């Protein structure tokens, strides 16, 4: 299978690089105090909820870029009044960052076992698939903090707080690496693109994910760590997969709103697929 760069839109949803450190080192919780946003009123955030759906990667990628283009036009007219958040799951897919090395693929790029895309985000290769919740925030950092380090740490904090509040899982950061970890296992990966201070791409949290496909790659270019999921860290009899996905989804969205101080405004996914962006 050939490496694909942005196929044409075809799907309309149903209604409704890192270098590993030699040893783990937790970044202590004092960083949390730096996460709060500088504005006092809550900014509107258009919310496209597909957390139950499997969306082809190319489709979601095209949606994000369409929103970014629209946002840039609104900025030119001083009409940039809201941000956007898309949450979904993907069909199985590998994605590479703009500078990702193909040496981290354990297969021939021309004969990939599943779809493979090179994107404009940062970071190395990763896997997306069912049971993994993916959040794509498209926000204008001019209204928050024009600091990519702050933004990355804020996304990590969303996951850390969600895991703690919902499952009592003590997750953390690892110095020198991006993402969210529990011990030696990486549960959440982050890869972003920022254009004129507008963010897109985002974070992916393994909830009930089958992690077997990660064996075909060196996830995020890190050879000496493992990939884990929420299901593997909670009582097997605590809840079924659907309940785990739903509980995690609710917690992620809540913590995203708290950390970025936004108010969600539910939007039609059909309008998003048609490129109809509200102002």
**Helix amount:** 10-25%
Q: What is the N-to-C order of secondary-structure elements (H for helix, E for strand)?
A: EHEEEEEHEEEEHEH
The gyration radius over C-alpha positions equals 18 Å
Strand content: 25-35%
Mean pLDDT: 87
**Helical stretch tally:** 4
User: How many angstroms separate the termini?
Assistant: 40 Å
Shape: globular
How many extended strands?
11
**Structural category:** alpha/beta
Features:
279 residues; alpha/beta; three-stranded mixed beta sheet; 4 helices; 25% strand
Describe it for me?
This protein is α/β, with parallel strands linked by helices and 279 residues long. The protein contains four helices and eleven strands. Strands 1, 2, 6, 7, 8, 9, 10 and 11 form an eight-stranded mixed beta sheet that branches. The protein has a three-stranded mixed beta sheet with strand order 4-3-5, with no helix packed on it. Helix 2 (148-167) packs across helix 3. The longest helix has 20 residues, at 57-76. The N and C termini lie far apart (40 Å). Residues 5-34 have low confidence and may be disordered.
